[in-house]
Amino acid sequence: MNTDTYALELQQISHTFSDRQKSVHVLDKISLTVNKGEFVSLIGPSGSGKSTIFHMIGGLLTPSSGEIYINGRQVTGEKGLISYMPQSSSLFPWRTVEENVGLALEVEGMSKKQTLQLAREWLPKIGLGGYEQAYPHMLSGGMQQRVAFLRALLSNQELICLDEPFGALDALSRLEMQNWLLSVWEEYQRSVLLVTHSIDEALLLSDKIYVLSDKPAVIAKEIVVPLERPRHEEMMVRSEYLQVKQQILSLLKNRQT
Amino acid sequence: MKKSFGYVKAGWPPILAVFLLLLLWQGATMIFQIEDWILPSPLAIVQEGINQAPQLGKHLLATLKITLLGFAIGSGIGLVLAFVLHSLPMIRRAIYPLLIVSQNIPTIILAPLLMIWFGFGLLPKMILITLICFFPVTLSTMTGLAQTDPQMKRYMMMIGANRKQIFWKLELPNSLPSIFSGLKISATYSVMGAVISEWLGAKEGLGLYMLRAQSSFHTDRVFVTMFIIVLMSFAIFGLITFIERRLIGWRPSNEGREGAK
Ligand SMILES: Nc1ncnc2c1ncn2[C@@H]1O[C@H](COP(=O)(O)OP(=O)(O)OP(=O)(O)O)[C@@H](O)[C@H]1O
Ligand SMILES: [Mg+2]
User: Fold this and answer.
1) What's the total number of domains in chain B?
2) Of A102, A135, A156, which marks where a domain is finished?
């Protein structure tokens, strides 16, 4: 396969954080790819360097070694090429919901009037009609995550990076949000790289899963999810689903001990 | 509805306290037969205030003018200075200690110097008020700008926002509450600065009026000016609070969420 068919490609990314006292080797030769329109998950123990990988893709950090390609172009260290949903929702409390949704587009240079128009068009589609003028503190955690997701979705970048979007939610709203994300994604197929702690979330949503080991993180395994689309919750009891789940679980366990 | 009732509820204890104090004062001057030039009674002060109203209007206007002008210039300079120091860390490190030192020079000493150098016109007054009131604005603005949430800043950088966008869309709105607390302090300082500058040389103004009243032992007039100055400070403070509420409408209220519906 030609490299420019990848929405994202990481080649042999290694990284060491160092300060005066000590240095931490976090990532070790990480290579992964996301095809155009593919949903890829990254799963790994806490502290294995998942957010660090995102900061590199976003150009915030330059890897100690290795290269990053977006649409076949070498972009290591370049900012502003992805749309991003951070681990905490990071909505601006002084902006209304519609203004928050438009933020990424504003930064890309769209006029505020246009971004508001687009936000008003979209908010009802994600179940937030009537909340255009509300401030983030008036919304529930799940609603805030949806706003942050829409902000990322509307951005004109091909690749969406989601860093544990539902980590802060309780199990029930998490399941609800996963189903919601699934339906939105199946309708608007974009290239997605999702970081998660939940094996079920990764299996339900993705085409491909990368399992990271504990620090220094290497790719322990690349797994193609053996489920057809459209996906539904009922698939979670199939034998091939449980088999893969078992496999990931043992990978995570082995590496940790 | 509920909110305005809340104001009334919160407003009455201080009003009652002030009223009782005035009552006590009035009683004391009557019982102990205190001489008017030492401590006039509140009623006598009100009476004198009414008598003097025509002259006072002119002086009040003059003081209000230099207060507002000086406050605008001083806080404007304070804001710009904070923006510059925030974006140029090298200069910040060089100038910041100087700023702190400058705040330790007593105004009372500075004022005569300014008169010697710049005469008795508007300029030395503006310089004095500016010197007094730029610092709270600079300090609070810089603090506000520096307190930007690092996660939000990281988010802005990842999606490719440049320095200008980060400043206008994130850092400035984030520091607004802090800027306003600086402005409120400066506003009260600027009233004080205006009066001091008038003591040192002016053709009109409350400072001058107070000085004249004092030298002729018109203690009641001194009190009248004092009350007018306090009221003026209150009014400016209230105006700034009003603008603040307008601009920072997003802040969650203390009363909780149910108030929204
Ligand atoms: N700026 C930094 N300086 C030094 N060490 C850092 C820095 N940022 C992250 N680390 C270290 O790198 C490791 C990976 O951090 P990272 O935030 O990427 O983990 P993560 O996989 O996202 O964890 P979680 O799932 O809990 O979010 C951690 O051990 C952390 O201590
Ligand atoms: Mg993380």
Assistant:
1) 2
2) A156
